[in-house]
Amino acid sequence: MKKVFIGLLCGTVVGFGVFFGAQFILKVGIFAEPGEVFYDETLLEEEITLLDKIFSDENLTLKKDVTISARNELSLPSLESNEVLYSISVPVTDFYSSKSNISVERVDELFTNCPDCGYSLIDVNDLSFEEKLLKINGEYFLDTFNSGAIFRIMKFDSVMFDDEIKPLIAELSDNVFPSATSVMTFAQTGVTAFSRLMNAKMNEVNSGEYFAEGLARYLSKYDFTHTSNEASFSDWAPTSGATGTPICSDLRFIDTLNAIGLDIVELTGNHNLDCGVNAANNSIDIYNANSIMTVGGGKDASSAAIPLKLNKKGTNITMFAYNQSTGGATTGDYPGANQYYEDAAVAQIGEARTRGDFVIVDVQYYECSAYVADYEDNTCDYAWATPGDETGFFRHLIDLGANVVVGTSAHQPQTFELYGDGAIYYGLGNLFFDQYRWPGTTRSLMLIHHFYNGKLLQTEIVPTVYDDTFQTRLMDEETKAWYLERLASERPEN
Known about the structure:
The protein is an alpha/beta fold. It is 26% helix and 28% strand.
């Protein structure tokens, strides 16, 4: 009996010895060592500082080691379960720069010390309309949201990632960046006047979509698309381009507007009464029937003065549109454009800003007339090329509280500038018209606004051009750079 007891005791001792010896060798159980945090050399100092705040808590004891690393990508990859999107950086340059793209083969080329490269990298959440966002390899971040930027990915290697690490980095995983579901896009375009020779072309092609073929896919993707249409629809639409011919539109041109996804038509123009009161009123009915909102004009003075309110994706915009000294305004119970009155503008703009709305003001101002066919005439590039004090008036609207002021009467694009707390685009030129004989009148600027949580992140300036086919198209990149540099160089002096 004694021998049996001794045997059992020895066996127990040996068993415990094996059990605890194994724990000691494997560093588990009572001999388990706390997990360690290893920072890979790919991490930046500021990232390590942030991670230290998470993993250096004296009350935190990890059971398993974790190795943390980071990498940069030029496009957003499908993230693994132990990866988080830590940051997004975008390249920006001077607001007035004609530069629009950076071509690189590898992401590290963007970090090369290059003081003369003409751009800097900023966090996307610091993006401001006062700087110009650049494309990377032709990709514009605010169009794609998964390219055109540097995507910083953090990786946490641990066998206990789900149970141990994931709860600790929840804040990192919750980083919020601009996306297609949170950024509101608004395309503003210039003068549209389907009339005269365009009516003749319509009779030839018998298709409203024909005129929009070069822009339909581009413009219809935005949340809101706008144009200033000066031509009312009429059963009697002249097909002559002779001087003095009324500006009236074939009814089939509603298909052109629908093809570009038009949401907003501005009625501040001075030609909407060319074909009479009935045509102007019927045109408003046609817009309503096609779910196209109107601003800056109406069937009477009261309706013409109503601002347009847009609310989408967390951004509230109030849009005002005024006719200033070009004719065609209504002051009573008949259709026409919204006449500018100082007292009303002060009150309305102030009220919109008090609500916290972003304020856009469009103005049908005096027109610049410099029609030259055989050379490039830059007369209308200037903000002071029109009668009156265009620069002073547009800046005054910024002083009243407008965030963006846009001239929508110019048949030739004009310069642009940052002023005060806002931006001014003095003239957008012709989007659709029959003035093909003069280089200046065949061009326009489209303003693509990108809003995020009520803030204007960027306004991309996209030039267009047309010819005697009357099919407006995007300007090629080389001509675009030359033209934007030319316009920017003529901006007013502060």
